Amino acid sequence: MRAGVRSAATIGVLCFILVLGAVWGWKAVTAPFPKKVAAPLCEDQKISKGDKVYPSEIIVSVYNAGTRNGLAGTTMQFFTDQGFQEGDVGDAPGKSKVPFVQIWTTDPHNPAVRLVESRFGPAHKVVKKKGPGSGINVVVGDGFTKLRKGPHFVVARADAVICSPPLG
Q: What is the structure's pLDDT at 99?
């Protein structure tokens, strides 16, 4: 093969590779960004009968069912000051009527619920209902003012599952 033909073939192959690279690059640049998947606030953790459950292992979400602005955020600060982990904060769903405090949970005997419950006086109510947020859902009304000091841990009376912050 003559040198001129060989040079023309090499340039042709290189041009073809350049066009393929340009097409691939254009597709990569104009493709939409992948959707960001939010990390879960908590993961289910199995607790055995007799295990201790601490505030640092519990996610609490707080919702305002009252008319006072910032009540949910203030209440969340009370919980984090006592070592609980922050979950969701916002207004209570729909037209929730809560005069003081309700804890919404599907498992009222859960040790995490008992530890959160220990922070309220006798006017609170545990409602067997799935809450809108992560972890233990606390709904506060205008009658709520502050948390009580509670125990540093509770002991699980039976095997249970709690929603704890993700490991690592």
A: 93
